[in-house]
Structure prediction request, 320 residues.
Amino acid sequence: MSQATRALLHAFETGALAERRAFFLRAEDPPFADIACEQSFRPAFLKLKQATPRLQGGAWPLGLVLLTKHKEENFANIARGWALLENGGTLVCAGANDDGAASLEKHVAKALGVDDTLSKFHCRVFWSTKGDAPPPTYWRGLTGLQPVSDSSWRSKPGIFAWDKIDDGSALLARYLPDDLSGHVADFGCGWGYLSREVLARSPDVQHIDLIDAENIALDAARANVADERAAYHWLDLTAEPAPHTYDAIVCNPPFHTGRASTPALGQQVIEAASRALKPGGRFYMVANRGLPYEPMLKANFSSFATLTDNNKFKVSRAVR
Prediction:
């Protein structure tokens, strides 16, 4: 349980907030029983006893929002939570001070008003009553897919590098071959950039599996990779097996930023790729050059080579 969720629990235990039927966006362990939990990040979803990746509608008397590090994602979740409330319902936000919760409280106070606030465990909990004023248009717009890059792509907050083509992915795309074939996978597909590049470069690809732990990312990937050869899988590859074995896998493991910030998770994805490749299958990966992945590639593949190193990212090819 995060410190922010502990602070949220404290607000209910002390009577600052009253327990009612509620929803919880970006849920962790709920602070009381009668809560519908939404969690689109697969590792967190698997830890919850009951949850859904996406709440659909309703008129709720109480809504809880666990804030993240990402301002635009918080704006989108607050706008969604506001829409899910009944008139006169209460929306409660909880987040860490280090993640900018105090700044976000000021934005919410200006846009919607704040009834009260509580500080505990280096976190802030603040809540608002739903009235006639809607959230800002910009916040509401962020709840849907947005055009990014050259506007031929769609993405939304909550996805790794949601508003631009990640520099590492762009570098990897330049080194993808044009002779991939058979069944291919994109591990940690995000909003689908690498998958679309694979299909554009290698016409002999028969199937491509887009796999990501973030269900929101798969929503965007479906919009960006409109191809009958594509299939989409919501999986945590560090804990769940890949759905098939593959002739090739491409991967930009985004484990240098965001929720999953430890190289060990990238190492687990390398191991998963090795298990999921057919003998002779190829693995193409980009990562921050300082991350210690080369020993893992050497241990799990028959050979590997560095295709490029631009002093920020390193692109590797490994053969099973």
